[in-house]
């Protein structure tokens, strides 16, 4: 099960990498009248489901979790929720790359934590270390670190032209 769980954990990252580097192709694939951010969100949610199933397949759950679980997990999820609350679907799912105008946000956690959604996700994953073998958490976190690097090198000239 280890190799399949590993593949399941890393499967979203080539998709995100492709979309970041080829936004016009994604907008064209989505077609006129379709929101590329919404379609990316649907695909991302499906891939996230595969990631969770993959982790669950190698996990050993017990109750109660260790003391560090709650603060890490809750603050990590708070950061994720807050980013989505402030940016919305289009801001979270590469809207700026797909030719949308996304307003600049400065409220917490932006301006205080670099890459707050990834930081929140990593915190939530680390919280689960007592249940999930280290190598799967590390692999998932490496995927996030890779995307932080990819997304830090945005070239505005490669942004897509919206079809609608």
TrEMBL record:
Chief localization: endoplasmic reticulum
Gene3D superfamilies xrefs: 1.20.120.1630
Keywords, alphabetical: Endoplasmic reticulum, Lipid biosynthesis, Lipid metabolism, Membrane, Methyltransferase, Phospholipid biosynthesis, Phospholipid metabolism, S-adenosyl-L-methionine, Transferase, Transmembrane, Transmembrane helix
Pathway the protein takes part in: Phospholipid metabolism; phosphatidylcholine biosynthesis; Lipid metabolism
GO BP, sorted A to Z: methylation; phosphatidylcholine biosynthetic process
Location of this chain's protein in the cell: Endoplasmic reticulum membrane
TM region positions: 46-63, 122-147
Protein name as catalogued: phosphatidyl-N-methylethanolamine N-methyltransferase
């Amino acid at each position: 099960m280890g190799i399949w769980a590993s593949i399941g954990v890393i499967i979203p990252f080539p998709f995100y990498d492709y979309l970041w580097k080829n936004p016009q192709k994604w907008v064209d694939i989505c077609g006129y009248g379709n929101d590329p951010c919404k379609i990316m969100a649907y695909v991302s949610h499906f891939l996230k489901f595969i990631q969770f199933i993959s982790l669950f397949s190698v996990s050993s759950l017990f109750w109660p979790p260790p003391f560090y679980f709650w603060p890490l997990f809750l603050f990590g999820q708070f950061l994720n929720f807050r980013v989505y609350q402030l940016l919305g679907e289009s801001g979270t799912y590469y809207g700026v790359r797909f030719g949308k105008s996304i307003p600049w946000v400065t409220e917490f956690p932006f301006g205080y934590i670099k890459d707050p959604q990834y930081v929140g996700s990593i915190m939530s994953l680390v919280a689960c270390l007592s249940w999930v073998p280290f190598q799967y958490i590390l692999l998932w976190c490496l995927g996030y670190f890779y995307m932080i690097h990819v997304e830090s090198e945005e070239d505005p000239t490669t942004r897509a032209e919206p079809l609608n």
